[in-house]
Amino acid sequence: MISRLVVVVALAAYASAQKEDFKCPDDYGFYPHPVSCDKYWKCDNGLAELKTCGNGLAFDDTDPKYLKENCDYLHNVDCGDRSQLEPPIGTPNCPRLYG
C-alpha cells in the first residue's frame, strides 16, 4: 500500500513539474516548446498544457500573435533551435506517419 502511495505521489509531482516548466505569457494562445519542434504549449485561461503534433508534423510558430494551433509537415516548418522530435513511427512507404 505504501509503495503505491509513493508511486502516486511521484507521478503527481512529475506532472506538476511538467506544467510548471512553462508560464503562459497570455491567458490564451499556442506557444512553441523551447527544444522540441513537434511540441507546443496550449494556454487556456492561463493554464499551460503540453501538446504534441502528430508523428511527422511540427508546430509552426510563425503566427506573431500565437493564436493559431498549427501543426504542419516537417519540411514546411523552420524548427530553428527546436531540434528534438518524437521517435518516428514508420509505415511501409514512409518513415513517419505523416511524411
TrEMBL record:
SMART domains: ChtBD2
Residues of the signal peptide: 1-17
One GO MF term attached to the UniProt entry: chitin binding
Species per Swiss-Prot/TrEMBL record: Graphocephala atropunctata
Ranges for domain Chitin-binding type-2: 21-81
InterPro entries: Chitin-bd_dom, Chitin-bd_dom_sf
Recorded GO CC terms: extracellular region
Pfam families referenced in this protein's UniProt entry, alphabetically: CBM_14 (PF01607)
Keywords tagged on the record: Signal
Name of the molecule in the record: Chitin-binding type-2 domain-containing protein
Gene3D superfamilies registered for this protein in UniProt: Chitin binding domain
